[in-house]
Amino acid sequence: MADGEGTGSSAIWAVALIIIVALIVGAVYYSGILTRKQAVDINVTAPSR
User: Fold this and answer.
1) 23: left (phi over 0), alpha (psi -120 to 50) or beta
2) Per the domain annotation, does 18 fall within a domain?
3) Is residue 48 part of a domain?
4) What angle do CA 29, 43, 38 make, to 5 degrees?
5) What is the pLDDT of residue 41?
6) Residue 32 domain-assigned?
7) Residue 44 confidence (pLDDT)
8) d(CA 24, CA 30)
9) Which residue range(s) make up the domain with 23?
């Protein structure tokens, strides 16, 4: 009984962990932290002499 319960519990925790990680990654991607478009748009100008 203990072995079967341990295996089932491990499978449930594995699935729950995958779902939690997927939600975190989706939230981070949706919030725009990974894209960082504002950091890319930088105009470098040199003084003309």
Assistant:
1) alpha
2) yes
3) no
4) 15
5) 60
6) yes
7) 72
8) 10
9) 2-40
Tokens describing residue 33? 């932290």
Q: Which two tokens stand for residue 25?
A: 């990654």
CA 25, CA 34: separation in Å to the nearest integer? 10
The pLDDT tens digits of the residues spanning 3-36 come to: 556 778 888 999 999 999 999 988 887 776 655 5
What DSSP string runs through 17-39?
Answer: HHHHHHHHHHHHHHHTTTT-HHH
Angstrom distance (rounded) from CA 6 to CA 44:
60
Contact 27, 33 (CB under 8 A): no
Among candidate residues 1, 24, 20, 21, the one with its CA nearest the CA of residue 9: 1
User: What is the number of residues in the chain?
Assistant: 49
